[in-house]
Design brief:
8-stranded antiparallel beta sheet, disordered N terminus, 0% helix, 3-stranded antiparallel beta sheet, mainly beta, 11 strands, single chain, globular, Glucose Permease (Domain IIA), 165 residues
Length: 165
């Protein structure tokens, strides 16, 4: 007969985190003069979800640096807050990708768009249409890859955007 162990070792779980440690890919080479992002329109009360849909993949799952939101192909994608578009173009696995600088180190990213509706250097207001849901880049179907970056570190969008998409 086997005896039960006389001692138990308790190992605490790893603490929850709001960021991932994996480094971001290098910033894309952007042709042309630098875009000043120092004076976007004043920030509003907070970020909004860029579209409504079903969350297909959460932040942090297997190092995922954003949230994937399923919605019908062509659904308008809206700017999460006021800012300046610092990238609008093809970005490898992200496909058609837009980055919006909201100031104070806060940048939001919108990937896999079927069509981009803004240009680099353009000022956007919260809720403006910046593109349309698609499946470009490394994508298995129409969805939006939505990122929140603070000083270029991916953060869980749920900590910055209230409610659900």
């Amino acid at each position: 007969m086997r005896r039960a162990p006389t001692h138990v070792v308790v190992v605490p779980a790893a603490p929850a985190t709001d960021s991932i440690s994996a480094p971001l890919p290098p910033a894309p080479e952007i042709p042309g003069p630098p875009v000043a992002a120092a004076s976007p329109a004043p920030a509003t009360s907070g970020l909004i979800w860029p579209l409504h849909g079903r969350v297909a993949q959460e932040f942090g799952h297997n190092g995922h640096p954003g949230i994937d939101i399923d919605a019908p192909y062509g659904t308008p994608i809206h700017a999460a807050d006021n800012g300046v578009v610092i990238w609008a173009g093809w970005q490898g696995g992200y496909g058609n990708f837009v980055l919006v600088d909201h100031g104070n180190g806060l940048v939001t990213g919108y990937g896999h768009q079927s069509r981009i509706a803004v240009t680099r250097g353009q000022t956007v207001t919260q809720g403006d249409v910046i593109g349309y849901e698609g499946s470009t880049g490394h994508s298995t179907g129409p969805h939006l890859h939505f990122e929140v970056r603070i000083n270029n570190v991916p953060r869980n969008p749920r900590l910055y955007v209230p409610g659900n998409p």
